[in-house]
Amino acid sequence: MSSQDIPEKNLPAEQGHAHGAVGTVEGDPFADPGMPPHEHRIQDIDERAAKRSERVVALLFTVSMLATIGFIASYVAIPHDKSIYLFPLGHISAQNFALGVTLGVALFTIGAGAVHWARTLMSDVEIADERHAIEAPAEVSEKVKADFRLGAEESQLGRRKLIRNTMFGALALVPLSGVVLLRDLGPLPEEKLRHTIWRKGKLLVNMNTDEPLRPSDVAVGSLTFAKPEGLEEHDHDFQNEIAKAALMIVRLQPDDIKDKRELEWSHEGIVAYSKICTHVGCPISLYEQQTHHVLCPCHQSTFDLSDGARVIFGPAGHALPQLRIGVNDEGYLEALGDFEEPVGPAFWERG
Predict the structure, then answer these.
(1) CA atoms within 13 A on the CB side of 133
(2) Where is this region: Disordered (predicted)?
(3) Which residues constitute the domain of residue 113?
(4) Is residue 270 situated within a structural domain?
(5) How far is CA 181 from the centre of its chain?
(6) In terms of domains, do 46 and 139 share one?
(7) Neighbours of 255 (CB within 10 A)
(8) 115 close to 63: Cβ distance less than 8 angstroms
């Protein structure tokens, strides 16, 4: 239906309207009623109420800062293997629980503070603005700048310094939670790969019997696997430590040992070498007693135990590290120190 078909009495009247209102037709159920009259909040007319709201917002931002500090402290202070009982969840990780609670409080209080700030202190006057073309002529650009200045003034960010400072503090501290979590992306640059738990005086313990070894327990031509004294399978770091400290012990005739240092570091022909292949870290387990060669089953790297465990075949890059051993006063085999070079594969690329 065109406007010509509408009776003249039903057309909108041409008259002035209140701010934000649209011309209406009497009795028209679809007419725009316009905006209701603005009602002032208590904070708009009572500065003491505004100060109370300001303190509430600042308190929320301060709680966020404290929660962020608590997040970092929980990450540093709580052992990752510690558990607590929490009904009805049962036993859960204490560290994960603390991290979740503190980070949740830090983020929630920032959001709650921002919402309370907007609802109680920022201007809530509704403004109707006409739609305009996409292009931005000079007058529109000036209007945007003016609106921005007006919004900044109405937010009272410059006036409410307590809110401003605590908000900046909360927003500055929260990202530290993510920075702290970067710690788990990898090991810190330390010298963990350069050392094992072998020390002077540590006994050589048979991996199968869990008993200290005597020279008489190692027969000529036999292959025995050993671990350091005090390292137990139930230890939380057992796998990490045994991956570096695992030994294979072979007894040779002293006359068959070609390498001078190997002979000096042995005891009555008993030599101790790292069990970890220097190619990709597979455990070496195959020994040929006639040739004194050990073979890695993964990629067939072959080492000559009678000649300093040098590589004679395969992709391994360097010889197996030797552990210097001796016998203590009680007749047990013991280490006389740590390996003089790092064990395992690709160390020179990683270290």
Answers:
(1) 5
(2) 1-40
(3) 42-185
(4) yes
(5) 3
(6) yes
(7) 8
(8) no
| Residue 220, C-beta contacts closer than 8 angstroms, at least 6 positions apart | 251, 252, 253, 269
Who contacts 64 (Cβ-Cβ below 8 Å, separation ≥6)?
Answer: 105, 106, 107, 109, 110, 113, 170, 173, 174
Side chain identity at residue 73, one-letter code: A
Size of the chain in residues: 351
Q: How far apart are CA 194 and CA 344, in angstroms?
A: 10
Distance between CA atoms of residues 259 and 138, nearest Å:
88
Cα-based angle 211, 215, 254 (whole degrees, multiple of 5) = 145
* DSSP structural state of residue 215: G
- The set of long-range contacts for 313-321, using a CB threshold of 8 Å and a minimum separation of 24, is 314/279, 315/279, 316/277, 316/278, 316/279, 317/278, 317/279, 317/345, 317/348, 318/278, 319/278, 320/273, 320/274, 320/276, 320/277, 320/278, 320/284, 320/294, 321/273, 321/274
- pLDDT averaged over 10-residue windows placed end to end, the chain, 351 residues: 48 46 61 78 89 94 95 91 86 92 95 93 78 74 86 79 87 83 71 84 91 92 90 85 90 90 92 91 88 91 92 89 93 92 70 47
Report residue 41 as tokens: 């909040």
Domain membership flag for residue 169: yes
Residue 5 included in any domain: no
Q: Token digits for 200?
A: 């002077």
Structure tokens that stand for 159 in this block = 């006036």
